[in-house]
C-alpha cells in the first residue's frame, strides 16, 4: 500500500497527519464515511505523487496486558523467566458479590485479605490439631468474570498439602479451591485477563493502574526479580500519568504502525484500526478482489 493509497482509501483515508510520517500529508475524510465530503478527492498530479513512499499499515501492537495482541509481547518476555510449576500448589480465590456493594470495593478489600492469608500461612495456621505452614515463593494472577467481579489465582512453589477447609476459613470472602497445577495450565491462564476475551469492566477502565500479575521474591528463575512484568510493560509505554486504562486501550485501538522501507512510524487513526480494516475488506470481497489474510500478527 502506498502513502497515496492511505490518503485516498475509503477506510484508511482518515489517518491524521503525523510528524513521524512526513510522506503522508494531512488527508481529508474519504467519501462515504461520516463527516466525509460528498465529492471524491482529486487525484494528485504527477509531480505531487512523485516521491510518495510505498508502505504497509498495520495495527499497533503495544506491550500490554490489556491488549489482545500486546499481551503476547508481555508473555514473550515473561515466559523464559518462569519456573517449573508442575505439581505445585494452585489456589483460587473468588468473591461473594453479596458481601459487597460493588466490584471495585470488593477488589480493594480482597487484595488486603490476600495479604492476611499469606501472612497466616507463613506463620503457620492450625487446623484439626495440625499446623500447616506455606512459606514458599508465589505468584498472583488476577482475572475478571463477565459480571465484572475479580477472582485470583495463586501458585506457590511447593508441593505441600493444604486443607481446602482451612483455606476457606482463612479467606472468608467467598469460595476457594485447592489443586495441583501443570505448566500447560499455568501458561494458559496467563494468556487472558477477562473471561472469553471480553471488555475490561468499566471500573477497571477507570483506574490508572492495575497489576495483573505479581510474583514474590524467589519465584522467577535465575533470581531475575529485579525486572518484573509490570516494569517491562511500563518501560515500553510512553503515556501521560493522567491516562486511565480505558483511555489507553482506546488509544491503542486507534493507533497504527506505518512501515515504509526500513522506517517505522506510528500514526493516529480517526477510528479503531479493526473497523477501518473491515471497511476495506468488505467492498473488496464483494467485488471478488479480496484474497484473504489479515493484520492480526
Rg estimate, integer Å? 25 Å
Q: Total helix count?
A: 10
Round the mean pLDDT to the nearest integer and report it: 79
User: Whole-Å distance between the termini?
Assistant: 17 Å
- Tally of extended strands? 10
Strands of the largest sheet, in order across it? Answer: 7-2-6-5-8
The secondary-structure element order is HHEHEHEEEEHEHHEHHEEH
Largest sheet, strands/sense/barrel = 5 strands, antiparallel
Structural class: alpha+beta
Main features:
297 residues; alpha+beta; 5-stranded antiparallel sheet; 3-stranded antiparallel sheet; 17% strand; disordered N terminus
Can you offer a commentary on this structure?
The strands form three sheets. The chain has a five-stranded antiparallel beta sheet, sandwiched between helices. Strands 1-9-10 form a three-stranded antiparallel beta sheet. The protein is built from ten helices and ten strands. The chain has helices at residues 3-8, 46-49, 70-78, 103-123, 164-171, 183-189, 202-205, 229-235, 245-253, 273-286, and strands at 56-59, 88-93, 125-127, 130-132, 138-144, 150-156, 176-181, 213-215, 255-260, 263-268. Mean pLDDT is 79; it is low at 1-51 and 229-236. The chain is α+β, with helices and mostly antiparallel strands and 297 residues long.
Compact description:
By secondary structure, the chain is of the alpha+beta class. The chain has helices at 3-8, 46-49, 70-78, 103-123, 164-171, 183-189, 202-205, 229-235, 245-253, 273-286; strands at residues 56-59, 88-93, 125-127, 130-132, 138-144, 150-156, 176-181, 213-215, 255-260, 263-268. 24% of the residues are buried.
Amino acid at each position: 500500500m502506498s502513502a497515496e493509497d492511505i490518503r485516498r482509501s475509503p477506510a484508511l483515508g482518515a489517518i491524521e497527519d503525523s510528524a513521524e510520517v512526513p510522506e503522508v500529508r494531512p488527508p481529508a475524510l474519504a467519501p462515504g464515511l461520516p463527516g466525509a465530503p460528498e465529492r471524491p478527492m482529486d487525484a494528485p498530479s504527477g509531480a505531487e505523487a512523485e516521491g510518495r513512499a510505498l508502505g504497509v499499515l498495520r495495527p499497533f501492537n503495544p506491550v500490554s496486558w490489556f491488549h489482545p495482541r500486546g499481551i503476547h509481547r508481555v508473555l514473550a518476555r515473561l515466559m523464559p523467566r518462569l519456573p517449573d510449576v508442575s505439581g505445585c500448589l494452585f489456589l483460587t480465590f473468588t468473591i461473594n458479590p453479596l458481601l459487597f456493594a460493588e466490584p471495585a470495593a470488593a477488589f480493594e478489600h480482597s487484595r488486603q485479605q490476600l495479604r492476611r492469608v499469606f501472612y497466616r500461612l507463613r506463620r503457620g495456621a492450625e487446623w484439626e490439631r495440625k499446623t500447616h505452614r506455606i512459606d514458599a515463593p508465589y505468584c498472583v494472577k488476577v482475572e475478571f468474570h463477565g459480571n465484572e467481579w475479580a477472582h485470583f489465582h495463586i501458585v506457590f512453589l511447593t508441593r505441600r498439602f493444604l486443607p481446602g477447609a482451612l483455606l476457606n476459613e482463612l479467606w472468608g470472602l467467598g469460595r476457594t479451591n485447592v489443586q495441583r497445577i501443570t505448566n500447560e495450565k499455568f501458561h494458559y491462564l496467563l494468556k487472558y485477563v477477562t473471561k472469553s476475551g471480553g471488555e475490561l469492566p468499566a471500573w477497571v477502565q477507570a483506574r490508572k493502574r492495575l497489576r495483573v500479575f505479581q510474583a514474590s521474591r524467589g519465584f522467577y528463575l535465575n533470581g531475575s526479580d529485579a525486572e518484573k512484568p509490570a516494569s517491562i510493560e511500563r518501560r515500553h509505554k510512553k503515556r501521560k500519568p493522567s491516562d486511565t486504562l480505558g483511555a489507553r486501550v482506546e488509544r491503542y485501538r486507534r493507533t497504527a504502525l506505518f512501515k515504509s522501507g526500513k522506517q517505522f512510524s506510528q500514526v493516529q487513526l480517526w477510528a479503531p484500526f479493526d473497523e477501518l480494516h473491515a471497511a476495506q475488506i468488505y467492498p473488496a470481497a464483494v467485488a471478488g478482489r479480496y484474497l484473504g489474510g489479515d493484520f492480526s500478527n
